[in-house]
Amino acid sequence: MEKTNKFVDPNDRLYSPPPQKTRLQAFKTFLYNPEKGSFLGRTCSSWAQILTFYVIFYACLAGFFAVCMWGMLQTIDDNEPKFQLDSSLIGSSPGLASRPIPEAGREAVLSFSSNHQTWTGWDTMLLDEFLHEYQKEQEEHHPCDYAQHTIPCTVNVSNWGNCTPTNGTKLNSFCMFFKLNKLYGWTAQYYKDENSLPSAMPQQLKDAFKNADERRKVWLSCEGQRDDDKGILGPVHYYPDQGFPGYYYPFKRQKGFRSPVIAVEFENPKLDTEINVECRAWAPNINQDRKEQLGVLNFKLKFN
User: What are the transmembrane regions (predicted)?
Assistant: First the structure.
């Protein structure tokens, strides 16, 4: 006996399966269904509702983001960083920088060509840009000394002695240029007397400190890293002095600010030989770490 549901009429079209359609017909129906008046599966009212929802949702999201950005920008000063010195990731000890820059760290060899009167084997454009920049005159610069100074102070390239460039960027001697990296708000501390000098400071620098008329400086030393390097490096001269004058600091984003530069001349090095050189910046508030190259620069020089 056939079982039937007394509540369902087998002939009712409501329960009959939908007519079979090809894929193309089904796709056309999806694009536009004339029976339901739907487009892409939704009626006009359904599309209006969902579009209204997303417009309101993204408008609120954009407004929330704008309020967050505004709040964050209120904590930022356009003229100075929020975190400075010890409260920042950079710290309170400026790094020592050189021109030219070894392109591959302390294992790189910087070669000086006497024929071309410049350094070779690295990006010479950086040195050219550096020398051109320091030879430009700017209205914001002022002549400074310890008695009276207005930052930014003038860096007088003519005081670089034998390292003063000719014809723009040509060098007549074996010269490198050193400066301290800019560190906002940093002010140098000074060694008060000979008893305050570190024991690791080279004797030549101790003698220079002893004979100096003005000791309020960040001192610089460059020498061979090992005893055999010291013997073939030859005499080293510093222009205009062996220290960065303290009156150039602090750096506070003054317009036209330039870091003071010490030009270092290697007078009579052994030619065609790799020489390991180490340069250090000396001040009570400058840390030195040879491994991290903090306050210290190690590189190899070769003079052709």
Answer: 51-73
Give the domain CATH number at 240. 2.60.40.1660
Q: What is the amino acid identity at position 76?
A: I
For the chain (304 residues), the mean pLDDT of every run of 10, in chain order, is: 55 64 77 76 83 94 95 82 81 86 66 72 71 81 80 86 82 89 90 91 93 91 90 92 91 87 91 89 91 85 82
pLDDT recorded at residue 292: 80
What whole-number distance in Å separates Cα of residue 255 and Cα of residue 107? 36
| One domain for residues 130 and 162 | yes
**Do 120 and 241 fall within a single domain?**
yes
> Residue 66 belongs to what domain range?
23-74
> Is 16 part of any domain?
no
95 and 236 assigned to the same domain: yes
Record the pTM: 0.73
Residue 4 covered by a domain: no
For residue 5, being part of any structural domain is answered with no
Single residue among 74, 105, 134 that ends a domain in this structure: 74
